[in-house]
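Morning F.,

Quick status update on the modeling queue. The single chain you submitted on Monday has been processed. Sequence for confirmation:
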Amino acid sequence: MTKNRLEAFSDGVIAIIITIMVLELKVPKSADLAALKSLAPVLLSYVLSYIYVGIYWNNHHHLLHATKLVSAGVLWANLHLLFWLSLFPFATDWMGENHLASTPTALYGLILLMAAIAYYILQKAIIASQGPDSVVAQAVGSDWKGKLSPMLYFAAIPLAFVSPWISNGIYVSVALIWLVPDRRIERALQQRGQQD
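Structure tokens below.
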């Protein structure tokens, strides 16, 4: 099957996720800057989640750009990823509204962990359908970011009950790691183009 419907559907779901997150932001009742102070946890959790959704969208875009055709396994793996991403608005709102409390922060980490695992499964499904010599297989390589991120999330979940600030620091650190542009797929596509 071609990947066009998969890309369009995924882009639509991700756009809706961002829309839901922004609609959860409530306008302060007061017109002074002090009114924003009480909204700081909500705004900070929104910014962090927006960055994460953006990272997933960007990497998903590159991953599918390097994919020629999709199988039923790829479709299901993609739906699995979108399921975990669709929980971002709930976890974001719960964490922000409760001023980064332990349980919402731990749940946020669990959702980040499950999204990372789902993305890994999607990569593996694409490689299985495209073959070990595919652009995606070449580009993924050792994938140190993809292996380090779940380990950090796994550590951050129980740490949320020690200090939610430590867990959120870990979540921010992982986001910063992924904000550095990842050129693996672009390089693999360029190399493949030079060979063809």
